[in-house]
């Protein structure tokens, strides 16, 4: 099978995140090259049809089967890629192996390197990935050198925001055969990579396994992410010469199941998930007592792409959602700002604030903040790669109250600062509605949850509240006086 | 036990089917002998020691309750209550009971952030405990009570569990062991005693968040229905009045007429009074399987189990 990214022949790509909406099945009459590619990261564009020939690509968004038929008819008739009123047309090198940027929501900015394969190469095509430079072996020293300057991505990563190589050296030096766990649970960016660019992820896992002499690679994902599980399972089956046997294991969809030690518990088959004590961390004593590296698909894809292309200029894969025109997972240069991320889609309403860094991210009014780890840390924001945009129709007290209630309901129940602390935090926020806004008590509880919880779930559960009080003190005071400036709080914490 | 027979080593362990619902923690002690400094005093500790071992060896500046710690008979550290937080120069605030005593560590029990964490966490423990000491059979010999007294808790900042609608019924169904989950601090000692020491596989941790509780691996609802063999080990390790031996469940209550443990909680699961036959229901099932009868009748333990009744009767159910 030849790669679809080589040569200047005609290719019609159909990208659909939801396989049930894939219109390509009923085009049996067309004899041109129609291929299924993985999702783009921007569900609102899908099903997305991209017609490419001779260095030009016409993009047709939100297509039905009838649209596909009329597009193929037009291509057959005219030989032009853009004969059926496309939503965007872009020019590029004929042998381009990544989806080009295009003037469409979520695709209009960025630097798609880690996400390059998404919607451009067939997710499980060995030929396509090979043509893009994939499956390249790397020696351990090169991998460790890249790992010195690469940080783990996302809260499911054992090395979130920390350089990777030191942990890898520890696992390699520890007695026992190491295990590499690809933790694809929970984050939209990681789910996207597993569904749309699984070979990039498996490349990273394989070179890492060879570097630390691991004899097992486990891809772990939520049992509810059907498409990701199906696609990565098929990629595992077709992966040529992995450094260690690969398998896919699913866990429950609960948010907490992405925490690295709970991921290990789920893989071991425990019926109830709770965090493990550390130190020693999983890199010393992990799955079945063996040294275990738990990294997100993002981390491993960055490793694979970094090994091919260098890591002087790094990117970050981020998902913007909430009050935006369309949810999008995009890839931006680390030097870019949160405002540029939000601009790739556009705010639905007028911008009020953003919760930056996932479920327990930080609240900010200011989007003039870099998306790199240091800039986000300095602003007390999170680095998980998920930004929830809040328009001025939103009440911040209500929003952080819901986050606190979520923490109280979804924690594993093991340690007191998290189990009881989140319940008391939600209760202190309810007191605001009864006229009692005790900022000091909230701050004290948040400090103790952050300093004494077993895992990052509890350490960060108070961050939305802490940062919201900082940025929106007047809203909390107004609620204590019986007034909701946004006018949304009737049954705020019951929602 | 025939552990000396090398042939036995490959046999599946007794614990294979035991599912306590808890995480498999790594060994948390130090890997080697170490010298650490606690509040200025230098202490040598053996390999496998935690910072709590070092702290217990000296007179510290601040008291460190380490409420949930048991740390003997292979029980613990669970490190769930986090009332053992101490300051270190090298790693900031850490839980002493489960942090390795690494050579050269410097510990301050009086560090302000650690002291705050211990106090807040103790109050968080109390926030989910019905502080009905006067009708509790462990009054005066309760580790939570001791810790609260020692830490000068006068009024817990988050209050105590005092909402009768949220109370769980007292499980008074067994003839030997009573469970009052309203007093449970989820230290997990009973689960470890039952599974790791006695290898009985009866108790487990179940649920999550505020629904986390001690339950039964057999999915039984009450102690009577469970596969408990009444060894009593769980009772001996329980730090509070959550698991007590029947017959002395009111041993240390304040004798105020009209006030009892049962009416202070208000709901009780009583014994069904049915004969159990062989010692455990598990064995009874095996027995039934060996001698199948053609006419199946409802198992006596299947009906009328959970009498979630308001009951002021102090009798401990029907004794066999």
Fold and architecture overview:
The complex is a heterodimer of chains A (495) and B (320). In chain A, 36% of the residues lie in helices and 15% in strands. Chain A has 495 residues and is of the alpha/beta class. In chain A, strand 10 and strand 11 form a beta hairpin. In chain A, helix 3 packs across helix 6, helix 5 packs across helix 6 and helix 6 packs across helix 9. The longest helix of chain A is centred in the last third of the chain and has 18 residues. Chain B contains seven helices and twelve strands. Chain B has 320 residues and is α+β, with helices and mostly antiparallel strands. Chains A and B meet through helix 8, helix 12, helix 13 and helix 14 of A and strand 4, helix 2 and strand 8 of B.
Reconstruct the topology from this structure.
The complex is a heterodimer of chains A (495) and B (320).
Chain A: E1 11-15, E2 34-37, E3 48-53, E4 56-60, H1 65-78, E5 88-91, H2 126-131, H3 140-148, H4 165-173, E6 179-183, H5 188-196, H6 198-212, E7 216-222, H7 226-238, E8 246-251, H8 260-268, E9 292-295, H9 297-309, E10 315-322, E11 328-333, H10 338-343, E12 351-356, E13 362-364, H11 373-378, E14 386-391, H12 396-410, H13 416-433, H14 439-452, H15 456-460, H16 463-471, H17 473-480
Parallel strand pairs in A: 1-2, 6-7, 6-9, 7-8, 10-14
Antiparallel strand pairs in A: 1-3, 3-4, 4-5, 10-11, 12-13, 12-14
Helix pairs in contact in A: 3-4, 3-6, 5-6, 5-7, 6-9, 12-13, 13-14, 14-16, 16-17
Chain B: E1 34-38, E2 41-45, H1 51-56, E3 85-88, E4 92-95, E5 106-108, H2 112-127, H3 143-150, E6 170-171, E7 177-179, H4 189-197, E8 203-206, E9 213-216, H5 233-237, E10 243-245, H6 261-265, E11 267-269, H7 281-290, E12 309-310
Parallel strand pairs in B: 1-5, 6-11
Antiparallel strand pairs in B: 1-2, 3-4, 3-5, 7-10, 8-9, 11-12
